[in-house]
Each structure stands twice: as structure tokens, then as C-alpha cells.
Amino acid sequence: MTVNDDGDFLLLSGIEHFAFCRRQWALIHVEQQWQENFLTQEGHYLHERVHDAGFTEKRGSVLLSRGMPVRSESLRVTGSCDMVEMDASENGVPIQGREGRWRLYPVEYKRGKPDLAGGAAMQLCAEAMCLEEMFVTDIPEGAVYCASEHRRIVIELTPELRDKVRSALEEMHNYFSRGYTPKCKMKSACKSCSMLDICRPDFQSAGSAKMYMERLIREEGE
What residue numbers bound the domain in which 78 lies? Predict the structure, then answer.
């Protein structure tokens, strides 16, 4: 787990956690707790294969930059992109150390089936917004690569998606500054969450501690 040492800047990777579960995000990013399971381990392995900060590969007219560090002063976030494709284009932007102009295209890698209506798209959009601010350019779309299906899914970075990212980050900054961890209710997705033993959503949704213990005793007696 990477800890953010950049003051009040939030980690880009937290956006997907937040979209999945606000409490999960707070446990990891506010309370600095982390617990692995096989799903997170597979995800880390995939990103380790993709990330190689400083490595740039050229394929024809396209440069592939892996693990590119990004940040946004306006959004107050920092992190890195799994992959940024830079395609030679007269309408692109200059890149330090490279001749010509380049069009930027972020690609986010996901182990399983990505949540294209939520966290995966929001994280990709946030990365694009950082790149736009850093390079003073416009990035209308990016892609999410689904490793389990070996396919790329194009994501349009709409004004609605950008507003969703800004709104989420505003709420995240509010929680972070207050040191606040929201409560949550038990749901089916909790069973595969690496934070389940720390989070204890079954305890929270039980009402009081007394009610929780009474329910456990009843279940043991059945």
C-alpha cells in the first residue's frame, strides 16, 4: 500500500476505492489500514508488470510511457498512470526530450471486469484531468484494459463524468481533512473485500453491540 506523503493531496488510486465503498476508502487512506486478499494481490501483480516509471517504449509513431507520475494542483491529487500512449500529431503537445508534438491517451489496467459506470471510469478520467492540467491540452477519451478478457474498452471523458470526479474528490477531501470514516451496511460485495475483517460491516449494521452479541448467541443456538 502506497502512503501519500504530499500534504493534503489525495492519491489518485483512492478514487476507485471511494466509488466502490466510502468506508473502504477511509479505512485505507484516512486511517492508513490495509489488508491483502487474493484479489488485491493479483491486482498488484498486474500493475507491477505494467508500471516501470521512466520506461518509454516506441511502437511505430506511438510512444508508450508506463507508470507516468501525474498531479493536479486544482484537484489536489497525485499518483501515476498505468500507461500513457503518446501518438505523434500536429495537434498534440510538446514532450520534454522528444521532437515533435504528441497526443496523450491514458490507459488504465484492471485485473477483472471493470466497473465502467463507476470507479474504473472515474479513475481514468481523473488521470486524464491531471494530464490536461500538466500539459495544457484536451483529452476527450481514454481506455480501460480488462486483463481477464484481453480487451480494451474506450471511455468517453464526458462533462458529466468529469463533474462526478470533482464531486467525489470534494467529498474525499472533506472526509480526509476531518479524519472521518463513514459507516456502511453489509452488502454482497463485502464478501470479496480485502478490508472485511477490519471494516466489520456486520457489526455496524447490527445496531448496538448488545444487539450484535444477542444475534450471535441466537445464531449459535440454531
Answer: 10-182
Q: Do residue 203 and residue 157 come from a single domain?
A: no
Q: Is 4 inside a domain boundary?
A: no
The answer to whether residues 162 and 125 touch, using CB atoms and an 8 Å cutoff, is yes
Rounded to the nearest 5°, which phi and psi values hold at 32?
60, 40
Cα dihedral angle (21, 19, 33, 39), rounded to 10 degrees? 90
Please name the residue that has the C-alpha cell 498534440: 92
Give the number of residues written for the chain. Answer: 222
In angstroms, rounded to a whole number, what is the distance separating the alpha carbons of residues 103 and 135?
10
pLDDT at res. 195: 74
Return the C-alpha cell found at 189.
460485495
Closest CA to 87 of 60, 62, 58: 62
C-alpha separations of 86 from 50, 81, 105, 142, 165 in Å: 16, 13, 6, 12, 24
Contact between 205 and 186 under an 8 Å Cβ cutoff? The reply is yes
Q: Are residues 120 and 201 in the same domain?
A: no
| DSSP E strand boundaries for the chain | 10-11, 56-59, 62-72, 77-94, 101-110, 141-146, 151-156
Give the C-alpha separation, 30 to 134, whole Å.
27
Mean pLDDT in order along the chain per 10 residues (222 residues): 63 92 88 58 45 62 91 96 94 89 95 80 97 97 91 95 97 94 78 71 48 56 59
DSSP 8-class letter at 188: G
